[in-house]
Design goal:
By secondary structure, the protein is of the alpha+beta class. It is 49% helix and 14% strand.
């Protein structure tokens, strides 16, 4: 994912102190993001792989946060629910604002 420094700073400032780097690294490995961009498209179509299904990220963030949280909440019993959900939202926001190669 390519993202400008200003865009990255803006996103990270929203989630400054209530996220987990451990969960973010776990999500990068377990929930890959795919970008599809064709000549006729204004912006790329972004999908995430959840439960062996590609799901669109745009206009589907709330559903994805709930679904991903249900998959990973048992993996991180030492981290509270709010931190896990905010980290998932941050991961999806970064995916939405990134540009494909």
């Amino acid at each position: 994912m390519l993202i400008s420094e200003q865009e990255k700073e803006r996103i990270l400032s929203k989630y400054y102190d209530n996220t987990s780097q451990e969960i973010k690294n776990y999500m990068k490995r377990r929930f890959p993001i795919s970008h599809y961009k064709f000549d006729w498209m204004e912006k790329p179509f972004i999908q995430i792989l959840v439960d062996d299904k590609l799901m669109p990220v745009e206009h589907n963030k709330k559903t994805l946060v709930n679904r991903i949280y249900n998959y990973i909440n048992d993996e991180f019993p030492h981290i509270d629910e709010a931190t896990i959900r905010r980290t998932i939202k941050m991961y999806l926001d970064i995916a939405l604002s990134s540009n494909p190669d």
